[in-house]
Amino acid sequence: MAADSKLEPIPTPVPLQLMRIRHQFMPALIFVLALCLTIALWKNYSVTANGTGEVSAVNVRVIATHDGMLSQNVAFPHLYDHVEKGQPLGRIDGVQSAELVAPVTGTITAVQHQPGEFVTQGHEVLTITEDTGAYIISYIRPGSSVVPRKNMKVAVRGRDHRGWAECRVQEVGTRFVPIPEQQLANAKIPERGIPVRIEMPNPSSLFLRPGELVLLNFTGGGDAK
């Protein structure tokens, strides 16, 4: 018996249509998203480092304003305490009394005198290391392919594999000096290099702490010699 050609086709249920669309397009969508993510990651990590540097630590000395005894009746900070700018640090009792106040925000990294000890005007009582460094210092070895110039662009990255930040060379030394041990490839083999001072990156793009070692990529440009 011949089939009735006038019968209307049975519509495909909506759930089945959605399943078909998902099976057809989801693999392609996932591939495109993965490709975009790979490209974004590659842009951050594909730069090759051709140097290292260290974030400088800015140390501020807290000086005794006059002769006297450090008061034992006033709170006095301990080593590695964090202090805020303007925070009272102690008091000197003498012919006149005066408070010691933190001139900057940072960490107490040295304590030269304790409460109950006599201090002389002009002598250092405490040392505060600021929370942020002032610049990055690097050293260019003899025979290096890098020829540093003032205002040369430098990509900077922390050693924990964060993204790169663009900075510039501030100053270039005029003679070779000993390279600090922490920047040597082998601490037992001394080296010399030309010191290069590099500006700090914007903390919002790359936050670096004083004393932190960083990777550098000198990308060219700068003032002609």
Short description:
The protein has 225 residues and is of the alpha+beta class. 14% of the residues lie in helices and 35% in strands. The strands form 3 sheets. It has a 6-stranded antiparallel barrel. Strands 2-9-7-4 form a 4-stranded antiparallel beta sheet, with no helix packed on it. The protein has a 4-stranded antiparallel beta sheet with strand order 6-5-3-8, with no helix packed on it.
- By CATH, the topology of the largest domain is Elongation Factor Tu (Ef-tu), domain 3
Helix content: 10-25%
Report the average pLDDT across residues: 85
Report the count of strand segments. 15
Low-confidence stretches: none
Name of the CATH class of the largest domain: Mainly Beta
Q: Which shape, going by the Cα principal axes?
A: flat
Q: How many domains comprise the coordinates? A: 2
Question: Strand sequence of the main sheet, in spatial order?
Answer: 1-10-14-12-11-15
CATH architecture of the largest domain: Beta Barrel
Amount of beta strand: 25-35%
Account of the protein in words:
With 225 residues, the protein is of the alpha+beta class. The chain folds into 2 domains: 45-57 and 133-220, Efflux pump adaptor protein, beta barrel domain (Elongation Factor Tu (Ef-tu), domain 3), CATH 2.40.30.170; 59-130, RNA polymerase II/Efflux pump adaptor protein, barrel-sandwich hybrid domain (OB fold (Dihydrolipoamide Acetyltransferase, E2P), Beta Barrel). It has 1 helix and 15 strands. The chain has one helix at residues 14-45, and strands at 51-55, 59-63, 68-70, 82-83, 88-93, 98-101, 106-111, 118-119, 124-130, 135-140, 153-158, 165-172, 177-178, 192-199, 213-220. Strand 11 (153-158) and strand 12 (165-172) form a beta hairpin. The longest helix has 32 residues, at 14-45. The mean pLDDT is 85.
